[in-house]
Amino acid sequence: MAIASDVDLVPGSGNKGIWSWITTVDHKRIGILYAVSAFVAFFVAGFEALLIRWQLATPNGTLLSADAYNQLFTMHGLTMLLIVVMPIGAAFMNYFIPLMIGARDVAFPRANAFSFWLFLMASLFLLSSFVLGGAPDGGWFGYAPLSTQLKEVVRMDYYAVGAQLLGVASIMSSANFIATIFTMRAPGMTLMRMPVFVWMSVVVTFLLIFSLPIFGVGLFQMFFDRNFDTQFFGGGGDPVLWQHLFWLFGHPEVYVLILPAMGIVSEILPVFSRKPLFGYPFVVFSGIAIGFMGFGVWAHHMFTSGLGPVAEAGFGMATMVIAVPTGVKIFNWIGTMWAGKVIFSVPMLFSIGFISMFVIGGLSGVTHAVVPSDYQQHDSYFVVAHFHYVLFGGGIFGYVAGVYYWFPKWTGRMLDRKLGLWHFWTMLIGFNLTFTPMHMLGLNGMARRTYRYDASTGWGFENMLATIGAFIIAASFLIFLWNLIKSRKHGSVAGNDPWDARTLEWSIPSPPPVHNFDEIPVVSQVDDFWHRKYATDEEGRAVRMDEVTGGALTVDKETGGDDHGGEHDDFHMPSPSYYPFVSAFGLVTMGYGFVYLPVGWVVVAFGGLITMWGLFGWSLEPVTKEPDHV
Amino acid sequence: MSSDGVAVEVVDHHDVKPIRKTAMWVFLGSESMFFGSMITTFLLYRNTVADGPGSEIFNIPFTSASSFILLMSSLTMVLAHNAFEHSDARATRIWLGATALLGTTFLAGQIFEFTEFVHEGLTLSTSSFGSAFYMLTGFHGAHVAIGVMMLMAMFFLSLDGRLYDKRGLNVELVALYWHFVDIVWIVIFTVIYLLQV
User: Fold this and answer.
1) CA angle at residue A538 from A534 to A541, to 5 degrees?
2) Are B9 and A1 an interchain contact pair (Cβ–Cβ within 8 Å)?
3) Which of A599, A629, B7, B46 could form a disulfide with A625 if both were Cys (CB 3.0 to 4.6 A apart)?
4) What is the ipTM of this complex?
5) Which residues contact A107 (CB under 8 A, 6 or more apart)?
């Protein structure tokens, strides 16, 4: 079979245009779509945050009304969690899981495209609420009965329907990734030889698989309460039921947000410390432990709802225990850098930033495990400071590190180091300037979600600092944006393996060809690619092998090669399909109908027909069309 | 073949079967949390009947009969799967049809039961009990209905001779789903109808 040599190596460069993106089923292009969408949404969420900070900069701010403020803080949370951080995780997973495990695509390429389009359209659905009757204003946690009152206003219907649609997209892509990871690994790629990022993806996808349906039930109940007069949270019902259902999803969700970043950092630190990851099995198993325990700590969000001393003590202890595997990881990362030849590249700086900021956020988080202390901190700015240190100082630093690390693989070009340094330092300073004062504000009694405060409270100075910090963060991301735009065209050419890295994705060209691997690699150990480049001398030092120059991975012809191609040689790369787009469009159309019941039933029916069209077309079209049909 | 007509090597050298089965198991794992949450809600509101009727309106013999019908459909499903494994298209078709028929009978029983309950004053908005009852049994009924559609799709594929396509659904995956929906009903039947304190 003719391979690589005569195939265009840049995915999609042979078929440009919007239509090729709409119909793509290539996991790499879908990964890029996720990344770009998330990055745009990041600026939307950032703009929402800047409006909030501008309002709070001085006492008695006048920029926003209480109503606008409610919508903005709710949508800032929803946008950041569901439309920025989850999809940026999905972007890395889409692009790199198949590359890291030596596969040619994900298990279900069209379902993968469907997940993306449903995510994107549901995100636009949520954001469109701003101009269609008002955005959700009951907080991203949507507590009942606040969320189920005011039935004539559609805002929380957008929340109930939009989050449901995003959940469906996430469950589908999670099932897809699990099937990919457990059934499509390259020969020799046993579970305990997988890169840590893939392991963290396994944990994340299982968390989503088991937590999203719980949220789904809660959202259905909220929607029914609002539209069909059921009594789940109102009437004879108990509003605390919503809190349980929500946080049974909401707490695993925070691990969904942070674990991919932990995986990314676990990939970056060994590369730039010139050492293998310290205690690989410990990092993997502590990640799994976090996944399991993540389902046992949800009620620490609800200490003030009156659970009683036994439950509070139990959940308090569980919350302290879950800090242990997290701490194990921190020490593993420090152990990786310890005595290594640390290279302070931009991704490495962001990774170190991740570890330091995450430790601060983790420490303030453990204080919430102490129930009496939590009573004081609850709903104060101390909590806001805590979760921004974990999710921004942790999550965003980790993901940005990932972008600097893998941008060469995506585009074939390096990001500019000088701009990267500017980005890093402005972001680090701006971040700490924004969120450190919030600890003090919270301990001084400033409550979350208040749209203004009186000058007599004395909170003006810290708030002004936080606002200045927020604008510095915004500036840092403008530098990042400029770096991305500039380097994509004019960055220095990266080559296959610019960082002298350890995992399989660096063994193939940048950007990778459509079919990823000319020959599926055969793996014999952790960091297999590294060991193909380096041997060990008598004193245990790594010595670069002369015959391998960091170029294409050489496949051992005796063990690799054709024997696992076998009789299935007639499988081809899946053909593009527009049915995933159509199906997703139909579902979101139905979503708009559900918001505006009972008139909306017409729209629901219409959307249903489109969805049926999409699904039928999807089922009946062949996966791989013959060339003369394409 | 890639879109520019140049040969590309295999996409996928793995057997397709375990990939789809893995995804179905994962999906069913997700479904168990979905039903688990609704069962929990029902247990919470079991006695929150407000002024409306409570569990005394249940007709246990009737629902036992329809439950028996649903459980028997698992038997016919096993027979269909067995015939499928033995490449007996005719027997597969017969047992698929039988399973779909039993599933539809169960759904008819549920519709009859819902109508009765509404006449006796239990609606979605009567009480938290009513809300939780209709939500749980309603979503289960929707799952049975989707299962019947999948069975019918298999039935028509068998007429086409396309039962053994190496992609999409096959009888084994439908069987997994169908047995899951039946097992969930055993739990629901126990929790709602039999567990009356």
Assistant:
1) 45
2) yes
3) A629
4) 0.90
5) A176, A179, A180, A183, A184, B19, B22, B23
